[in-house]
Amino acid sequence: VTGGRIQEMSALLGIGRTTLWRKMKQHGIDAGQFKRRV
What we know:
single chain, mainly alpha
């Protein structure tokens, strides 16, 4: 949906970017896996 853009993801979720990064790290999620490949 957001192409891996953390700021846009956090806005959709209604949380801060830092909170999103922390939660992704806690759950072992790599933001790079969501980036669009051209």
